[in-house]
Design goal:
Blueprint (H helix, E strand, L loop, with lengths): L10 H13 L7 H12 L5 E4 L2 H12 L6 E5 L4 H8 L4 E5 L21 E4 L11 H11 L2 E5 L7 E2 L2 E2 L6 E5 L12 E5 L2 H11 L5 H5 L19 H12 L1 H18 L1 H5 L12 E2 L5 E4 L3 H13 L15 H5 L8 H9 E4 L7 H19 L1
The structure holds pyridoxal-5'-phosphate.
Length: about 375
């Protein structure tokens, strides 16, 4: 079986994990959390905090916007539940936006029509590690005085124009889940543009206390200041992440190699009108997080999925659009409300892509996809 995804854990990650165990780097914000944070600081993420997951990074982001019951936030329907959950946990209502077909990202040109006097935030998602058109989104947000919380869970290592993904937004959230390019099992991070919000985030993340300031020697005792939670990951997991970050280029190169191989190999099928390949706009530099193809409709997508799985290729679909999921329906949405999202989500099929894959594996995947169409034409 060619697995859809696999983490790549080498002796380096094991060495750091063992070091963490042997030296008692177990709770949060110890040696390895600091090393990971400094690594991202050096990449330009001035205010950067590791969190227990991408989901908790989004929850922290939502708390910082002060979104409250009665408020609304604009989010693409084509995303993971966590993007919406984070804001709904604060009592806010999701306003689901359409995507643009090429990238599967929120259609920035359709955001403004969704803004009301209740809108508090725009939550774009960088699907497949391809950045949204952030300049366009930031102009809209500024005009209407809205927060932008970018769900960059899949976009670690990607760029928007000249900057690493996330830096244009007020707040950006990343994931280091086992399925992501750089993993620590469960983990995430948040980038916060504003320094004052960063101080607030440090307090929320440490159970509502200013323990961080105390540990940094800025105050001589710490106390309870805000409603908070425990959002800092174990340093043991940060040790695993630090190993991954030391292998950053190696992992990136391999993923881009596989992504480009798929992209080039599927040109023929696209020219023959069988599939559509992903679009990478000129403003985006990708991280090879995932590769998908678009089939002509959901029936063909599902047939392809069955065919590939029967031939030991771990392909999979992605997101049932949130507006058409059971909870989306409870919020008054119905099938047909977002036709582009529904169509493209139904046509999308993701192919295996991970560090441990060989060129031979990738060639097998391409061959099986081609065979599916050859069989149909016979
Ligand atoms: C777009 C998106 N948002 C949020 C998340 C949540 O991240 P995590 O699994 O680290 O909580 C994911 C990860 O699956 C994701 O792909």
């Amino acid at each position: 079986m060619i697995n859809f995804t696999e983490p790549s854990i080498t002796d380096l990650e094991k060495k750091y994990a063992l070091d963490a165990l042997e030296h008692g780097y177990l709770s949060g914000d110890k040696k390895y959390t600091k090393l990971c944070t400094e690594w991202f600081n050096a990449k330009g993420y001035k205010n950067f905090l590791l969190t227990t997951s991408g989901s908790s990074a989004l929850e922290l982001g939502a708390l910082l916007t002060k979104i409250a019951p009665g408020d609304e936030f604009i989010v693409p329907s084509f995303t993971f539940s966590s993007t919406a959950n984070a804001f709904m946990l604060r009592g806010a209502k999701p306003i689901f936006a359409e995507i643009e077909p090429g990238t599967m990202n929120i259609d920035a040109d359709k955001i403004e029509a969704l803004i009301t006097d209740k809108t508090k935030a725009i939550v774009p998602v960088d699907y497949a590690g391809v950045s949204c058109d952030m300049d366009k989104i930031m102009v809209i947000a500024k005009k209407h005085n809205l927060f932008v919380v970018e769900d960059a869970a899949q976009a670690v290592g990607s760029f928007y124009k000249d900057e690493p993904c996330g830096l244009r937004a007020d707040i950006a959230c990343f994931s280091f889940h086992e399925t992501k390019n750089y993993c620590m099992g469960e983990g995430g991070a948040v980038y916060i543009k504003d320094d004052e919000l960063m101080t607030e985030a440090e307090i929320i993340r440490e159970k509502g206390t200013n323990r961080k300031q105390f540990l940094n020697g800025l105050v001589d005792k710490y106390s309870w200041y805000k409603i908070g939670s425990s959002l800092l990951p174990s340093d043991l997991l940060a040790a695993v992440l630090y190993g991954q970050l030391e292998r950053f280029d190696e992992i990136m190169e391999k993923r881009l190699h596989l992504w480009n191989y798929y992209y080039n190999s599927f040109e023929k099928l696209e020219k023959a009108g069988c599939i559509t390949r992903p679009t990478v706009p000129s403003y985006a530099k990708i991280n090879g997080h995932l590769f998908y193809i678009l089939l002509s409709d959901i029936a063909e997508r599902n047939a392809m999925l069955d065919y590939l799985r029967a031939h030991e290729v771990g392909a999979t679909f992605h997101y049932v659009p949130l507006h058409s999921a059971p909870l989306g329906l409870e919020y008054g949405y119905k099938e047909g409300d977002l036709p582009i999202t529904e169509e493209y989500a139904g046509r999308l099929l993701r192919l295996p892509l991970h560090f441990n894959m060989t060129d031979e594996d990738a060639a097998t995947v391409v061959k099986k996809v081609e065979e599916f169409f050859n069989g149909k034409n016979d």
